[in-house]
Amino acid sequence: MPILLAGNSRITQKRLQSELRNMKKTKEKNEATGTVSNPFDNLEDFKVAQDFNEFETAVDFSIIPLRKPGRQEWFRVNPEIELTNVCFLDVEQNEGSPESYLVTASVAPLLRELPGMTKRSLHLCVCRPNGTPFVWPVKLPKGNGTKHDDWGRSALEAAKKAKTEWIRMNSDMQLGAYKCYTSSASWEEPTWPELGMAEILKRSVGEQHIIASTDHPVIRQLQGLE
To answer: What whole-number distance in Å separates Cα of residue 108 and Cα of residue 116?
Structure first.
């Protein structure tokens, strides 16, 4: 079996080579004497060092989903990384969820009448138990006092609460807003990807989902020009 050496491991190459030689000698001795050894004879072989956690390596998430929290998952919101007052265009698909496009500030006013245009606030989140990151595009309330604003306001309140506590969020159709639940477990603080917002957007929204012109094929299709 090959042995992988972590760059930050304190186990030296010399020590590994010595252990491999000892294992080989033991195997040869057993084969010569016909002895069947018990692999658990030396329990010290299975004890890891106290600094075992230091061998863990950071995960580089090449894809960070753009989505809202699932109704069964506990999540946290990064208190420092967010981008507010951005416009998205959600384009309905034949199957599945709508496809989201980030619209530049110079083009957004020209498309405000298109169905699916919304103003959002982007929040970096992680969910339990694996600490998987995702970007939550929260719809901002329009501020016109309509019932739909309750969804936006309650989502923003949930995002604010999740900056300091692990929460779970569900839609309450009778209430017309989101309800959030706080965990009473003593879970550790989340580990966040060491990425800036620009790189996070590149991995979540993607360059192919930017609309920077009214000549974009998606816009022309929605306007009936193609």
So the answer is: 12
